[in-house]
Amino acid sequence: MAAKSDYYDILGVSKDASQEELKKAYRKQALEWHPDRHQGADKEAAEKRFKEINEAYQILSDAQKRAAYDQYGHQAFSPGGGMGGFAGQNPFSQAGQWGPFTYTYSTRGGSGGESPFAGFDFGDPFDIFESFFGGGSPFRQARQVPRYSIAIDFMEAIKGVEKEVEIEGERRKIKIPAGVDEGSRIKFDEFILSINIRPHEIFERDGSDIHVKLEIPYSLATLGGDINVPTVDDQLKIRIRSGTRSGTIMRLRGKGAPILRGRGRGDEYVRITVAVPERLNNSQKEVVRKLQEEGL
């Protein structure tokens, strides 16, 4: 069996990384390696990598699992490893495709010599299996709760959306609230729904904050003036100060995503880049030469 990669290396964080750093690293990696963003031969590799990322976050985001991993490494979750009494339990998972969803669910119990994590499908990295580390007997049979995942567009996540789906042969409508993020979970009576978000061509997201790049002409950066900037709601006119440098970041308060479990909204951060003209006519070149002579 090939050696497994270090969980910290998979997420690209140090071993003393905070929970917030782990979450940000997971979001970045999950977005980059989401199978929907890859095609052809690359898709299979992306699916494998995506599963590794989910597995790494599943372990490191739980304090007790992380402590066990730090002490024993992958051996903590292998037969006869550092997890002691848990080594004899073999929960199983089932996965499949159902309508617009992909789904997985698990039950605890069973027998055999495998690790409690052997062969487990970490399809929902935000689900914490507390029964393996206190909070209940690992031998107790748990109720089967189907888990589904659905991919939605970036703006649907920002504004909320109602989807019609088919579950167990029955058509039904579900509401996804405004402000859901990659990996958000919604609990319904019969199942748990995990959210995957397709990337946007302009906007990037960090929690409730939105980031966008805005290229402005050299003349505007030099002289200043007004320009429209895109937001998740509409176009907004902003003032560019004279002498604005490339790399300047402007903050637009309250123009980010809705805060899912709170009030208000995040902010939008606009990174300014100054476009340098590639071609100039003779008169324009003369103006630039005069500026150059004056040391500007």
UniProtKB/TrEMBL annotation:
GO molecular function: unfolded protein binding; zinc ion binding
Transmembrane segments: none
Gene Ontology biological process: protein refolding
Keyword list, A-Z: Chaperone, Metal-binding, Repeat, Zinc, Zinc-finger
Cellular component aspect of the GO annotation: cytoplasm
Domain J: 6-73
Highest taxon in the source lineage: Bacteria
Pfam families: DnaJ, DnaJ_C
UniProt cross-references to InterPro entries, sorted A to Z: DnaJ_C, DnaJ_domain, DnaJ_domain_CS, HSP40/DnaJ_pept-bd, J_dom_sf
Name of the protein: Chaperone protein DnaJ
Source organism: Candidatus Woesebacteria bacterium GW2011_GWB1_38_8
